[in-house]
Amino acid sequence: MFRKIKERCVLLRVSRLFGSNFSPAYYLESNPDVAESGTDPLAHYIFRGWKEGRNPSPFFDVAYYLANNPDVAESGAEPLEHYLRYGAKEGRLPAPSSGTKVHLEAQPYVSPLTSKVNPKVKQVYLHVGMWKTGTTSIQNTLGKNVELLRENGICFPRIKGVYNHSPLRVVFDDNNKWRTWEIGLRGWTEGEEQEFIDAVLHDFCVVMQECESDTLCLSGEGISTMSPGDIENLKNVIVQILPNADIDVLLFVRDYTAIRNSGLQQRIKTGNLIINPWAIHCIGEDDVAGGVNYRHHIEKFSDLFGSEHCHVHAFEESCRHQYGPAGYFLEQLHFPHQSFDKVEWVRANESISDKALSIIGYIESRCPILLKNRTVRNPLRQSRSNRHLLKIRGNKFSVGPTVVATWIKQARADANWLKKKCRIDYTQEAAPSPEPKDIIFSQNFYDDITQIFEMLDPVLQCLVYDYCVEASAHFTDDESSETFKLLRKWIGEHFPGATKGLENVVNARDYALYARLYSKG
Question: Per the count of CB atoms within 10 A, which of 99, 205, 365, 383 is most buried?
Answer without folding.
Answer: 205
